[in-house]
Design brief:
Blueprint: E1 6-7, H1 16-33, H2 35-40, H3 56-68, H4 74-86, E2 92-94, H5 113-127, E3 129-135, H6 145-149, E4 156-161, E5 165-173, E6 176-192, E7 197-208, E8 214-221, E9 240-242, E10 252-253, E11 268-272, H7 286-310, E12 313-317, H8 321-327, E13 348-352, H9 359-374, H10 388-424, E14 436-438, H11 450-461, H12 467-476, H13 484-497
Antiparallel strand pairs: 1-9, 2-14, 3-4, 3-11, 5-6, 6-7, 7-8, 8-9, 8-10, 12-13
Length: 522
């Protein structure tokens, strides 16, 4: 074990890719969080109309300006819709017996594998990046079956957010590029009185040491490098030290596999929107989030205009100066059915107010058009017509991105489950062929009309396509959900108990003898 517990190496270094993408992730995250998160940041997302005016009156007007604005969360609704398309069918999961406990408790906190996969999918759809970290407990020697069954010692698969991965590095080992370093920004508990916890920054380093073996280190800022408020001092080389655990040991671990052998790889899987390499991909929802903020700007302007011009404004014509002095001496006019307003001969009164076809109605229409452009499924612009070719090309583009992400998430879970398995049992074959974690990646339901489904059924009844082909088509359009085997068993049971229902008949077996040719009732 290394005796170096303090270092001036920049453990908290962030890669340029991270620095570039972090503001975009923050924007998307705030949009998904909703109106409270957006309005809490005030001028970050909604500039003051008159920023040069620093008066208290202008500040109060800006507060009202923000309060009246409406943030329609098209980003979150679109994200939910995309994830929902994938999760219309539950993931196919098949795990080896030794690690089948991961299906119902993937991370040690009773989160199911399918539930965590749903969260991972949402992260990648929104931010273009996430990761899975396989957490190996520290053990002495081999892990026993009893320890696993009682959950005393077990591997966990942890979902890691994009903004927590601040640094990474690939290394060449024997002509093969492999992950050699990952640094995660985390927090650790510095004080806990049983009710309140106090936290401070920590950097978890996953790396291959000089011998090419996996080691975990937890670094914190050294006390000599902190200012009085606990933040880092403005010095060129702040110091970092290994955290000391409650047991008095430094937080440096050397995980081993089921046979007690140290690992020669980092059990960490990146997930991207394009591929699963270490380089971060662009966030798929960034453009939508930018448009969502632009819609918020327009909403604030329209609501402000609606408030100002939508208020009824009384007017009087034909008043003389003497009449105003005598009748309206106090400068006030009481309006309403319980008050009379005396006017001189030839004078008139009225109310100025925007008409129903004015700005408020126009603002509503404008918002609806923008919501439709955001891709929100709840608001549709019925007047827009598209050709069949345009609809097919647009749907194919969306499916390709979403389908790629679903496949990337599936592949990452297969790899992570394989890593977890090596802690439980000795595995000679590392292909993971017997591990199945497959998310639905077929999203043709949006392009199959009722007429197309009718044609599909007609082709099936005529014997032009098989049962499996017909069922595959119905699953694509979201009508069928059973497996082919379950459907066949169910159909056979229904046929024996109730007989075939009237209507569509099953395709006939061409080799079967027709014993009912003379039976007109059939």
């Amino acid at each position: 074990m290394s005796s170096i517990h303090v270092t001036t190496a920049n453990v908290a270094y962030t890669r340029p890719e991270y620095t570039d993408l972090k503001p975009r992730w923050d924007l998307i995250r705030d949009c998904i969080s909703g109106e409270d998160a957006i309005k809490e940041k005030t001028t970050d997302y909604l500039p003051k109309p008159n920023a040069e005016d620093t008066s208290a009156e202008n500040d109060a007007r800006y507060e009202a300006y923000v309060a009246r604005a409406v943030f329609y969360n098209g980003t979150a609704r679109t994200l939910n819709g995309l994830v929902g398309q994938v999760m219309t069918e539950p993931p196919a999961i098949e795990l080896p017996t030794s690690i089948e406990f991961l299906e119902n408790n993937i991370d040690g906190s009773k989160i199911q594998l399918a539930q965590q996969a749903n969260m991972a999918l949402a992260r990648v759809v929104a931010y273009g990046r996430a990761a899975l970290m396989v957490d190996y407990p520290t053990t002495n020697g081999e892990t026993t079956k009893a320890q696993l069954e009682q959950n005393q010692i077990r591997p966990n698969i942890i979902l890691v957010d994009a903004w927590d991965i601040i640094n990474w590095r690939m290394v060449q080992v024997g002509g093969v590029s492999k992950l050699g370093l990952v640094v995660l920004s985390e927090a650790y508990t510095v004080n806990d009185d049983g009710y309140e916890e106090e936290y401070d920054d920590m950097w978890k380093v996953l790396r291959l040491d000089e011998e090419g073996l996996f080691v975990i280190e937890e670094w914190i800022l050294d006390g000599d490098s902190k200012s009085l408020d606990g933040t880092a001092k403005e010095i060129k080389k702040p110091k970092y030290k290994l955290r000391v655990t409650v047991d008095g040991e430094v937080a440096r671990y050397e995980p081993t596999d089921a046979a007690g052998k140290r690992l020669d790889y980092i059990p960490f899987c990146f997930i991207g929107s394009v591929n699963n390499n270490a380089a971060p991909d662009l966030p798929p929802l960034y453009d939508l989030a930018v448009l969502n903020i632009a819609h918020y700007h327009n909403s604030a302007d329209y609501e402000e205009a609606c408030f100002i011009t939508g208020q009824p404004t009384p007017y009087f014509t034909g008043l003389t100066q003497d009449w105003v002095k005598e009748v309206f001496a106090d400068g006030k006019v009481q309006l309403g059915s319980r008050a009379a307003v005396p006017l001189p001969e030839g004078a008139s009164a009225g109310l100025l107010q925007a008409t129903p076809n004015g700005m408020p109605f126009e603002a509503m229409q404008h918002k609806e058009r923008l919501m439709a452009s955001l891709g929100a499924k709840l608001v549709e612009q019925k007047t827009v017509q598209r050709t069949a070719t345009e609809a097919t090309m647009e749907g194919a583009a969306e499916t390709s991105v979403l389908g790629t992400i679903a496949n990337n998430v599936s592949a990452a879970y297969v790899t992570a489950v394989g890593y977890a398995r090596r802690f439980v049992e000795s595995v000679e074959d590392e292909s993971n062929d017997d591990v199945v974690v497959k998310l639905n990646s077929n999203f043709r339901s949006a392009t199959m009309t009722a007429q197309e489904r009718t044609q599909l059924a007609s082709e099936w009844m005529s014997g032009a396509i098989t049962d499996e082909e017909m069922r595959a088509g119905l699953r694509r359009c979201g009508v069928a959900y059973m497996s082919d085997e379950d459907w066949a068993d169910k159909r056979e049971t229904q046929a024996m108990t109730k007989g075939l229902t009237s209507g569509a008949a099953l395709p006939k077996d061409p080799d079967a003898k027709d014993e009912t040719a003379d039976d007109e009732s059939l």
